[in-house]
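Reviewer 2 asked us to include a model.

Predict the structure of this chain.
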Amino acid sequence: MTQQAKLNGEDLYLDDLQVGQRFATGSHVMSESEIKAFAAQFDPQPFHLDDAAAKPSIFRGLAASGWHTAAVTMRLLVESGPRIAGGLIGVHGHITWLQPTRPGDVLTVESEVLEVTPSSAKPDRGHVTMRSSTRNQRDEVVQVMSFKLLATRRHAPGIPDGSKTIDGALRSPPAAVALVDDATTHRSQE
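Predicted model (C-alpha coordinates):
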Protein backbone atom coordinates (compact mmCIF):
# COMPACT_ATOMS: atom_id res chain seq x y z
CA MET A 1 0.00 0.00 0.00
CA THR A 2 1.47 3.38 -0.99
CA GLN A 3 1.70 6.06 1.64
CA GLN A 4 2.40 9.70 1.00
CA ALA A 5 3.80 12.09 3.55
CA LYS A 6 1.42 14.99 4.01
CA LEU A 7 3.23 18.10 2.89
CA ASN A 8 1.99 20.22 5.76
CA GLY A 9 5.37 21.64 6.63
CA GLU A 10 6.53 18.78 8.87
CA ASP A 11 9.93 17.30 8.11
CA LEU A 12 10.62 13.59 8.43
CA TYR A 13 13.55 12.63 10.62
CA LEU A 14 15.43 9.35 10.72
CA ASP A 15 13.26 8.37 13.70
CA ASP A 16 10.07 8.85 11.65
CA LEU A 17 11.07 6.49 8.85
CA GLN A 18 10.40 2.75 8.80
CA VAL A 19 11.39 -0.07 6.48
CA GLY A 20 8.58 -0.68 4.00
CA GLN A 21 7.18 2.86 4.01
CA ARG A 22 6.26 4.01 0.51
CA PHE A 23 5.91 7.52 -0.82
CA ALA A 24 4.44 8.73 -4.12
CA THR A 25 5.16 12.03 -5.88
CA GLY A 26 3.24 14.31 -8.17
CA SER A 27 3.80 14.11 -11.93
CA HIS A 28 5.79 15.80 -14.69
CA VAL A 29 5.05 15.80 -18.44
CA MET A 30 8.13 15.39 -20.66
CA SER A 31 7.72 17.68 -23.67
CA GLU A 32 9.67 17.26 -26.90
CA SER A 33 11.11 20.77 -26.61
CA GLU A 34 12.24 20.11 -23.02
CA ILE A 35 13.91 16.83 -24.06
CA LYS A 36 15.79 18.53 -26.88
CA ALA A 37 16.78 21.55 -24.76
CA PHE A 38 18.19 19.37 -21.96
CA ALA A 39 20.07 17.24 -24.49
CA ALA A 40 21.48 20.27 -26.30
CA GLN A 41 22.95 21.54 -23.06
CA PHE A 42 23.97 18.35 -21.24
CA ASP A 43 23.83 15.22 -23.48
CA PRO A 44 24.06 16.30 -27.15
CA GLN A 45 23.64 12.93 -28.82
CA PRO A 46 21.57 12.72 -32.04
CA PHE A 47 18.88 10.39 -30.62
CA HIS A 48 18.12 13.02 -27.94
CA LEU A 49 18.16 15.98 -30.32
CA ASP A 50 16.66 15.02 -33.68
CA ASP A 51 13.60 12.91 -34.56
CA ALA A 52 15.03 11.74 -37.92
CA ALA A 53 18.42 10.84 -36.45
CA ALA A 54 16.71 8.96 -33.59
CA LYS A 55 14.63 6.65 -35.83
CA PRO A 56 17.49 4.32 -36.92
CA SER A 57 19.04 4.36 -33.42
CA ILE A 58 18.58 1.68 -30.78
CA PHE A 59 15.77 3.85 -29.37
CA ARG A 60 13.74 3.82 -32.63
CA GLY A 61 12.64 7.39 -31.98
CA LEU A 62 13.38 10.49 -29.94
CA ALA A 63 14.27 9.61 -26.34
CA ALA A 64 15.11 11.76 -23.34
CA SER A 65 18.60 11.51 -21.93
CA GLY A 66 18.73 9.19 -18.93
CA TRP A 67 20.27 12.10 -17.05
CA HIS A 68 17.19 14.17 -17.90
CA THR A 69 14.95 11.42 -16.48
CA ALA A 70 17.18 11.36 -13.36
CA ALA A 71 16.96 15.15 -13.01
CA VAL A 72 13.15 15.10 -13.31
CA THR A 73 13.05 12.28 -10.76
CA MET A 74 15.09 14.39 -8.35
CA ARG A 75 12.83 17.39 -8.84
CA LEU A 76 9.72 15.29 -8.19
CA LEU A 77 11.31 13.86 -5.03
CA VAL A 78 12.27 17.33 -3.78
CA GLU A 79 8.93 18.95 -4.60
CA SER A 80 6.49 16.22 -3.59
CA GLY A 81 8.33 13.19 -2.23
CA PRO A 82 9.27 12.40 1.35
CA ARG A 83 10.31 15.64 3.03
CA ILE A 84 13.49 14.59 4.79
CA ALA A 85 14.67 17.06 7.45
CA GLY A 86 17.73 18.89 6.14
CA GLY A 87 17.08 17.91 2.52
CA LEU A 88 17.77 14.95 0.24
CA ILE A 89 21.50 14.64 0.86
CA GLY A 90 22.87 11.69 -1.06
CA VAL A 91 25.75 9.58 0.22
CA HIS A 92 25.68 6.78 -2.37
CA GLY A 93 23.49 5.81 -5.30
CA HIS A 94 22.88 3.58 -8.29
CA ILE A 95 20.67 4.27 -11.33
CA THR A 96 19.30 1.82 -13.88
CA TRP A 97 17.39 2.96 -16.97
CA LEU A 98 15.02 0.22 -18.11
CA GLN A 99 13.48 1.87 -21.15
CA PRO A 100 13.47 5.24 -22.89
CA THR A 101 11.46 8.20 -21.72
CA ARG A 102 9.56 9.68 -24.67
CA PRO A 103 8.00 13.04 -25.51
CA GLY A 104 4.57 13.17 -23.88
CA ASP A 105 5.43 10.70 -21.12
CA VAL A 106 3.99 11.65 -17.74
CA LEU A 107 6.48 10.67 -15.04
CA THR A 108 5.75 9.89 -11.40
CA VAL A 109 8.00 8.42 -8.71
CA GLU A 110 7.25 5.84 -6.05
CA SER A 111 9.84 5.39 -3.32
CA GLU A 112 10.24 2.71 -0.68
CA VAL A 113 12.34 2.80 2.48
CA LEU A 114 14.64 -0.25 2.41
CA GLU A 115 16.82 0.37 5.45
CA VAL A 116 17.06 2.83 8.35
CA THR A 117 20.42 2.85 10.13
CA PRO A 118 21.29 5.18 13.01
CA SER A 119 24.98 6.09 13.10
CA SER A 120 26.92 4.57 15.97
CA ALA A 121 29.64 7.24 15.67
CA LYS A 122 27.43 10.31 15.21
CA PRO A 123 24.25 10.05 17.32
CA ASP A 124 22.53 13.06 15.68
CA ARG A 125 22.20 11.32 12.30
CA GLY A 126 22.03 8.13 10.33
CA HIS A 127 21.34 6.77 6.86
CA VAL A 128 18.15 5.90 5.03
CA THR A 129 18.35 3.59 2.03
CA MET A 130 15.53 4.04 -0.48
CA ARG A 131 14.58 2.72 -3.89
CA SER A 132 12.70 5.04 -6.23
CA SER A 133 10.95 3.76 -9.35
CA THR A 134 10.12 6.35 -12.00
CA ARG A 135 7.09 5.31 -14.07
CA ASN A 136 5.36 6.66 -17.13
CA GLN A 137 1.61 7.06 -17.66
CA ARG A 138 1.36 3.38 -18.76
CA ASP A 139 2.79 2.34 -15.38
CA GLU A 140 6.00 1.18 -17.10
CA VAL A 141 9.16 1.60 -15.03
CA VAL A 142 11.62 3.76 -16.98
CA GLN A 143 14.22 4.21 -14.22
CA VAL A 144 15.10 2.65 -10.87
CA MET A 145 17.32 4.55 -8.49
CA SER A 146 18.62 3.09 -5.22
CA PHE A 147 20.31 5.53 -2.91
CA LYS A 148 21.49 6.14 0.62
CA LEU A 149 20.59 9.47 2.22
CA LEU A 150 21.95 11.26 5.24
CA ALA A 151 19.12 11.91 7.71
CA THR A 152 19.11 13.76 11.02
CA ARG A 153 17.56 12.30 14.14
CA ARG A 154 14.78 14.09 15.94
CA HIS A 155 16.26 12.97 19.26
CA ALA A 156 19.78 11.74 19.59
CA PRO A 157 21.02 10.03 22.72
CA GLY A 158 22.93 12.59 24.78
CA ILE A 159 21.89 15.58 22.63
CA PRO A 160 19.22 17.73 24.35
CA ASP A 161 16.16 19.32 22.71
CA GLY A 162 16.83 22.91 21.75
CA SER A 163 20.29 22.13 20.39
CA LYS A 164 20.99 22.47 16.67
CA THR A 165 20.84 19.68 14.09
CA ILE A 166 23.49 19.22 11.39
CA ASP A 167 21.40 21.41 9.06
CA GLY A 168 21.27 24.24 11.65
CA ALA A 169 17.62 23.75 12.62
CA LEU A 170 16.59 23.67 16.27
CA ARG A 171 15.69 20.23 17.60
CA SER A 172 12.12 19.89 18.71
CA PRO A 173 10.23 17.26 20.65
CA PRO A 174 8.70 14.45 18.55
CA ALA A 175 5.59 15.36 16.63
CA ALA A 176 3.11 13.06 14.97
CA VAL A 177 3.85 12.31 11.34
CA ALA A 178 0.77 11.95 9.18
CA LEU A 179 0.89 9.29 6.49
CA VAL A 180 -1.80 8.90 3.88
CA ASP A 181 -2.61 5.70 2.04
CA ASP A 182 -5.35 4.94 -0.45
CA ALA A 183 -8.11 4.52 2.12
CA THR A 184 -7.02 5.49 5.61
CA THR A 185 -4.97 8.12 7.40
CA HIS A 186 -2.45 6.67 9.84
CA ARG A 187 -0.61 8.59 12.49
CA SER A 188 2.69 7.27 13.67
CA GLN A 189 4.56 8.72 16.59
CA GLU A 190 7.91 7.86 18.06
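The first helix runs from residue 32 to 42. The CA atoms of residues 32 and 56 lie 18 Å apart. We have added this to the supplementary material.
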